[in-house]
Write a structure and sequence with these properties.
The chain contains 15 helices and 7 strands. It is an alpha+beta fold. The relative contact order is 0.08.
Length: 381
């Protein structure tokens, strides 16, 4: 009997230890998740305007990103008007208004000369080896603000010496005097003495050659797409999908860039399917017919997801949404807009599945293969 009681006591004692440990682990995971979200760099106004104007992410996706990252500007009537003109929906404006992150209180002004010593911590910058000149130029050319690049330099340092020629190249790419000062400082303070490079060799393998994080890469890609530089956008997005392959946004933008930039519909379909399978969407520029003749129409983006389809006009005033269960039929048009590669989506209008309404669209490229891709994606999910 005593053996039985001892076993029971050991089991109870073990359980009393395991439960607090499990609770502690859950608490630590929650804290880590909150820290990671807080470490995300908030959107500045210009960067978020580019996202809205590109219209390659659905309203729901943009709203979710705003809540995750926050914004570093406060909503005011002029700012609201600017976003509305860019095509922002009311729910986007509301998300911006609720997601303002006040800047962290700055420390007292530094002395005239920049301080030397260990790099100051900067939120959202991953650790890694010193940056090369080409990495800094690529960041700037991709649309990353000089102030953000400076944060990377402060944390990571650089592996090159600042010369007049290098200074001109960085300035031409979008750098400023503050960034050049940070590079000059880190080039001196981070370089091992006596030519010893062992400090670089001791950097963990997971951090070697680490560049901008996922959000930085996708932000730079949006800026590149806005500048009609799709080859650069594709390179950035291909890098982003290797950084966080489980996320849909980079795949979604990559498919968009491959379709409208490099005109590679096969690669675009692969990327779009990867985005949809990860909970994202495939985005297509389309014309939406208003009079069954395409004499009156609006331009916007059609988004295909696992759940259905949504449409948002460029000006944000016209929207359309249909769940998979509401879609009765999709197909190429034989008459209405057939010369534009038009297609239709027929949607049930009531719960009895009797009445339906037909929405006609034509792809921006006016090519039937793009229409066929859209319909195939709708039917696949």
């Amino acid at each position: 009997m005593s053996t039985f009681h001892n076993a029971i006591n050991r089991a109870i004692s073990s359980r009393t230890i395991i439960i607090p440990l499990a609770a502690l682990m859950l608490a630590m995971l929650s804290i880590d998740k909150a820290f990671m979200q807080a470490a995300k760099a908030p959107y500045d106004k210009d960067r978020l305007l580019k996202v809205v104007r590109l219209n390659a992410l659905s309203t729901q996706e943009v709203v979710q990103a705003i809540y995750e990252r926050g914004v570093d500007f406060q909503m005011s009537p002029p700012v609201e008007s600017e976003f509305k003109q860019a095509g922002a929906r009311p729910e986007m404006i509301d998300a911006m208004r609720k997601s303002y992150r006040a800047p962290v209180a700055s420390s007292p002004p530094p002395p005239a000369s920049r301080p030397t010593g260990p790099a100051r911590p900067s939120a959202g910058v991953p650790p890694g080896p010193p940056l090369s000149k080409s990495e800094i130029v690529t960041m700037l050319q991709g649309g990353l603000p000089a102030s953000r690049v400076e944060q990377f330099v402060e944390v990571r340092g650089v592996n090159f010496t600042l010369t007049p020629e290098v200074s001109r190249e960085i300035t031409s790419a979008g750098g400023n005097r503050s960034l050049l000062g940070a590079i000059s400082e880190r080039a001196t303070s981070e370089r091992p003495s006596g030519g010893d490079r062992s400090s670089i060799a001791n950097v963990p393998a997971s951090h070697r050659n680490a560049g901008p994080d996922y959000d930085d890469l996708t932000d730079q890609a949006v800026a590149a797409l806005q500048s009609n530089n799709s080859p650069h956008a594709i390179r950035l997005l291909q890098q982003a999908v290797t950084v966080e392959p489980q996320k849909p946004t980079a795949f979604q933008l990559l498919g968009f860039a491959q379709l409208y930039g490099s005109r590679d519909i096969l690669s675009a379909e692969r990327s779009m399917r990867a985005a949809i399978e990860r909970g994202g969407s495939a985005a297509f520029y389309v014309y939406h017919d208003h009079d069954k003749l395409f004499g009156s129409f609006c331009e916007g983006s059609l988004f295909v997801t696992k759940q259905g389809v949504t449409y948002k006009a460029k000006d944000g005033n016209h929207t359309f949404e249909a769940l998979d269960s509401q879609i009765k039929e999709t197909g190429l048009n034989a008459f209405v807009g057939s010369e534009h590669g038009a297609f239709h989506i027929k949607v049930f209008q009531d719960g009895n599945r009797k009445d339906s309404k037909t929405y006609n669209f034509a792809p921006l490229t006016r090519q039937k293969p793009e229409s066929s891709l859209i319909m195939n994606l709708i039917k696949s999910y």
